[in-house]
Amino acid sequence: MIVFAGLGAKVCTREFRAATCVDRIAGRYPAPGGEREAVVAVRDCGATTGIVTHVFVIRLGERLAGRSGNALVVDSDYGAAPYLPGGGVPLEIQWVRSDSLVLRYSARARVGLANQSSRGVRVTHVRHPAGGA
Fold first, then answer.
1. Which pLDDT value is given to residue 45?
2. Residue 130 CB contacts under 8 Å (≥ 6 apart), including other chains
3. Within-domain flag for 68
4. Would you state the pLDDT for residue 89?
């Protein structure tokens, strides 16, 4: 067991997490007009944590560089919500206009972040009670 104490704990924990987590891009969804995109990434930090799904709204081609999602951060809540074989919670992503995005996902998913707006884009969250996206 590794225990971090004192002021340095936050720094050590961040460095350890960054060194052990693997981010994988699951999909890129360009907005109409081509200036922005929604990017879905799954983050796996090892056997003792669940895989977390992140949705980013970014400029087209912008690098994510280990950041957390700015539109949605969600996980399966220890299997309560559906889980894809490769990891992550199933999502449906739909651009309504270049400044309006709809994200659909299971109501059983545990939500860490669900912003209504990100980078000038209105984000609508639709949670399906049946669990599917």
1. 86
2. 106
3. yes
4. 94
Report CA-CA distances (Å) from 115 to 24, 47, 126.
Answer: 22, 28, 12
Residue numbers of the domain that contains 78:
22-128
Q: Is the pLDDT of residue 9 over 80?
A: no
Domains identified in the chain, total number: 1
Has residue 10 been placed in a domain?
no
Residue 36 included in any domain: yes
Q: Does residue 77 lie within any of the structural domains?
A: yes
- At 38 the pLDDT is 97
Assess whether pLDDT exceeds 90 at residue 49: no
Cβ proximity of 38 and 101 under 8 Å? yes
